Amino acid sequence: MNKIQYPIEPNHIKIVQTYLPDYLKAKNLTTTTRYKYHCLNPNHTDNNPSMCLYKGKSDGKLRLKCQVCGLVLDLFNLVEHVDHIQGFVNQYFYICNFFHLDPNNPIPSAHYEYYQHKKVDNQQILEYIDLCTTNKVLIDDKWSLRSIPSHIVEEYSLGYDETLDAYIIPVGDKGFIQRFNNDRKPKYNRSYDLRDYFFANRFYNSLPFIITEGEIDALSLLACDYPNVIALGGVTKLKHFYEEFLKNNSATIILALDLDESGSNAFTLAKIISSKVGLSPPINLWNLFKEPLPENIKDINDLLIFNQPLLQKTLMTIKKDYIHEKNK
Asked: Among 34, 143, 211, 223, which is least packed, fewest CB within 10 Å?
C-alpha cells in the first residue's frame, strides 16, 4: 500500500465513509433486522435495536442514529468507540488498512452503492398495507388491546401484520410504520426513506396542537376526540420540527412526550429552541392533569389504557378553555 499523502483529499474521506455498513457487519454489530442496530451509548440500557442507518440529505454521508437517545455516529466515531483508535488521520489509515484500500485512491463500498441507489416501489408499499388491513376482525381486536377504537382504525387505515406481530400505521402516501410487540424485534421500523410526520386528518385553528413522540400516542389522543395531533416519530426529531416546521407558526404547542429522561430533556430543549425562534414556550400536557396519574405509566397510550376518563376529561377541558378564549 502506498504511503498516505497529506492532506487527505476530502473526496477520499467521503469514499472511505461509505464502509460504515461493512464495518458494522465485520464487528458483529448487526441484528436480525436489516439496518437496525443496538444502541452503543453505554447510558442507554434498552436492549431493543434502536439505531438505524440514515443518509444525510446535504452530504450523502451514512450515519448511525439512535431513535431513542439521539446518539449519532459516523464511521470515524465508531472506529474510536469500538477499536479505540484516536485521531482522525489514524482512524482514516486504520479503515483503509482494515478494508484493504489504497488510502490515496480508495473505491466506494459495494454495499453502500446498493444502499444509495435502492429504490422503493410505491406499489409494493401499498400492497403491503392492503395486505395488513384485510382481516378487519383481527385488526380491530389487536388495536383494542391498545384501546384504539374501530372508527379510528378505519379512518386511519390502521393494520396488523400477523407474521411479524406488528401494528401497521400508514404515514402520508409514501410509507408506513411497524410497531413490533415481540421483544426480539426493534420497537419501531419505518419504511425505507420515510421522513414524514404523522398528521391528524383535520385541524381546528381554535385549538392548540398536541405533539407526541410516537404515532400510537397520537392515535390515543384522536381516540379521545382531540383533533389537532402530530406525531414526530421519535423524540430526536423535536429540534428539527421546531426549527423547520414551527418557526413561522404562532399556534399554541402542547408537548405530550414520554415520562422518561429523554422526554424530560426534550421538553427542556423545546423551551430553549422556542425562545431562540421567537415562539411561545410549549405547555407540558402532563402538568394539565388535575388528578393523580396511574402508577407506572410511561406515555399517553398507557394513560388511555389505564385511565381513559382522566385523559378525556383533560382534553375536553383544553378544548373548552381555548374555544372560550377564541370566542371572547
From this structure: 34
CATH number at residue 166: 3.90.980.10
The values of phi and psi at residue 277, to 5°, are: -95, 5
> Backbone phi, then psi, for 91, in 5-degree steps?
-65, -40
Classify the C-alpha dihedral 37-167-223-141 as positive or negative: negative
Helix boundaries (H) for 234-307: 238-240, 261-276, 300-306
3-state SS class at 124: helix
Read off the pLDDT of residues 50-67 as tens digits, 9 standing for 90 and up: 888 777 766 767 788 887
**Final residue before a domain boundary, out of 132, 164, 195:** 195
* Non-local CB neighbours of 152 within 8 Å, separated by 6+ positions: 143, 158, 219, 222, 223
| pTM for this prediction | 0.69
Domain count, the chain: 3
CATH number (domain holding residue 214): 3.40.1360.10
Give CA 130 to chain center in angstroms.
23
